[in-house]
Design a protein that fits this description.
240 residues, single chain, Pentapeptide-BTB/POZ_domain, 5peptide_repeat, mainly alpha, Pentapeptide repeat-containing protein
Amino acid sequence: MCCVALPFPKSADFAVDKPGGVACRNLLDDFRCGIHSRLRESGYTGCTVFECFGAGQRVSAGPDWRTPGVAAPMFARFAKVRELHELLWHLAEALALPDAAAVHDDLARVAAEVDAAADDPDADVDACRRVALGPLREASALARRGLRGPDLAGADLIGRDLRGRALRGASLRGALLVGADLRRVDLHRADLTGADLRGADLRGADLRGALFVTRPQLAAAVGDAATRLPATRERPAHWR
């Protein structure tokens, strides 16, 4: 789905321009990627850091996009469902936090509402985000309680040398960490919701217990065998 529905510009992340609704030149007839094993070397790094959070599978159940009259509404729905599925992922992560038990009922209620919205073509994604924001922030605060990490939410930390900074339990929600040096930094229980980690140096960093860190965030960063990850996250292949 993402190989057809989404547009991308020629850049450091993509070797060519591709308009939305047009199949990528590397997409095979059986929907496999012809260069999947060498995306980075072929100039398609952007593909390796994208995640649809299962939205493609949900939207593409039924006739495929090549069926007359199906493509346009399917692609429009995909963009919306992808955002809702990312929100569902964060809600599921919060529900898995034992320290956030006090808001588990609220989180479960919101998750059910968001899941239902994903089947509604007229769903208001922004409204779903607003409803989820409070319980998610409360879950984060409960999980970080007692750690006294700094509040750096939304901070511009592009290219900053953060080695030696006390970021254990920090709020880094939406922080700009592009190219930041986080080598050997302790990020236990740091909230990384929406943090921009493109090119951030995580070599030797400790992300065990880091909150809401996604696979695309890790794939966009630099790490190594010494980077410690949450138990539920795989080490990106290019780190090896």
